[in-house]
């Protein structure tokens, strides 16, 4: 199958869900041998447009043309047969299956790959694109960065000439992002066409040949890769965005959260937090940086009282809370923004108003005995909607009807609507658009300035550099070092890979390194 001429056109694509138009008369051209970035906030219509292209959704209007031939996809198999491959943001892999078995899926009725042939294909493609993966490894045992390689290999095994990468760097380390960029570069040099969907401005400028910006279902313009991050952000949001976080230098007070010798095991009994010591002082932000899966989540669970540590102590304002329950830690003045808001941040069928009082629904003024004061809950919601710029028709709408950024504003509004000693914010801007990031960052800084101790867990180095007063790097459950936020990225990157601080600082600096982290 060879599609190296002609290219791909989307002409007048419109997709409605009821009365809501998610994609509105979009024209897009993708040429062989180029990386075409589709940039836009969450909810701009990027993924919907690509799901139409991949046969997951049927357009209400418009046409897909590949190499001059009009297409009418009703399922992904037809799109794959036409040379389209998609690497989804949420991996479409079967966890209990091996890598080779996942490669064989989706081919029933057509050419069925024998298992040995599938294994061989994994090895060949892995070698060719420097993405080695064990064909017999079970998906659920692989780290996310390797699972993503499998997604890419699946698309390449189908000889896809048009590859769609949907937010592919969301779960990757700086080093893995560099590796992915190199793979995309290689694919482009082979004459394949790549559509790269993202909201990360740094990455767009690093790899794009052309940039198309979407906003509210429409294309609002094209930009050159030489455009500044501020110019791209303004096109995405429709107004000027200040990408720098304005903040005064911290004036730290007494330690509010003190962690000593903390050791935590996972459910299988493995040690995932191993002798961790740190403190967070009043009026400062300590950022925990590191690749996901190095004990950050388990550390936070132990601080909140979700799990009991094997060893060590945690004190909050001098009170030992090592074995406190989550209810007790909340009542002691701990606020929490969880890394997975969909699972842990709110109750999806509840209204916005109900979600805004989840942590205090048993207390005055929202409850009197067993009775809820609905008028007070409504008043609270209307005030917080205004203060936190939560974009919703009504506070009685289910929270599930909101965009990612607005859901996160509800979570933060709930936590900041009471006096806190410590705010723990875990991946606070994951899956959140540029405009909302600006707002959330501002609120976190103003909470710090009130004298709250802020513990921020983030895998986004831009966020760490913007918000941290000190940076603690974790690797395999241990503290590699605590450094200042202006530490060079390559030093932080080495520390995130487990290189001790002294060695990382002494490592030779590259003369000019393009860093995509």
What is the CATH-assigned architecture of the largest domain? 3-Layer(aba) Sandwich
How many helix segments? 18
**Unreliable segments of 5+ consecutive residues:** 511-517
Overall pLDDT metric? 88
Number of strands: 22
The fourth-level CATH homologous superfamily of the largest domain is P-loop containing nucleotide triphosphate hydrolases
User: Strand sequence of the main sheet, in spatial order?
Assistant: 6-7-8-3-9-10
- Computed structural class: alpha/beta
The CATH first-level class of the largest domain comes to Alpha Beta
Domain count: 2
Roughly what fraction of the amino acids lie in strands? Answer: 15-25%
Question: Which sheet architecture does the biggest sheet show?
Answer: 6 strands, mixed
Distance from N terminus to C terminus (CA atoms, Å) equals: 35 Å
Helix content: 25-40%
So what's the overall shape?
A: globular
Using the CA coordinates, give the radius of gyration: 24 Å
Describe the protein.
Helices cover 32% and strands 25% of the residues. The protein is globular. The chain is built from 18 helices and 22 strands. It has helices spanning 46-53, 76-81, 99-104, 115-128, 144-157, 174-189, 201-207, 229-237, 296-304, 326-331, 341-345, 352-355, 374-387, 404-416, 434-449, 461-467, 489-496, 501-506, and strands spanning 8-17, 20-30, 35-39, 61-66, 69-71, 84-87, 162-166, 193-198, 210-215, 218-223, 255-265, 271-281, 285-289, 311-316, 319-320, 334-337, 367-368, 371-372, 422-426, 453-458, 470-475, 478-483. The two termini are 35 Å apart. The strands form 5 sheets. Strands 6-7-8-3-9-10 form a 6-stranded mixed beta sheet, sandwiched between helices. Strands 16-19-20-13-21-22 form a 6-stranded mixed beta sheet, sandwiched between helices. Strand 14 and strand 15 (319-320) form a beta hairpin. By secondary structure, the protein is of the alpha/beta class. The model is unreliable at 511-517 (pLDDT under 50). It folds into 2 domains: 8-237, 3-Layer(aba) Sandwich (Rossmann fold); 255-506, Rossmann fold (3-Layer(aba) Sandwich), CATH 3.40.50.
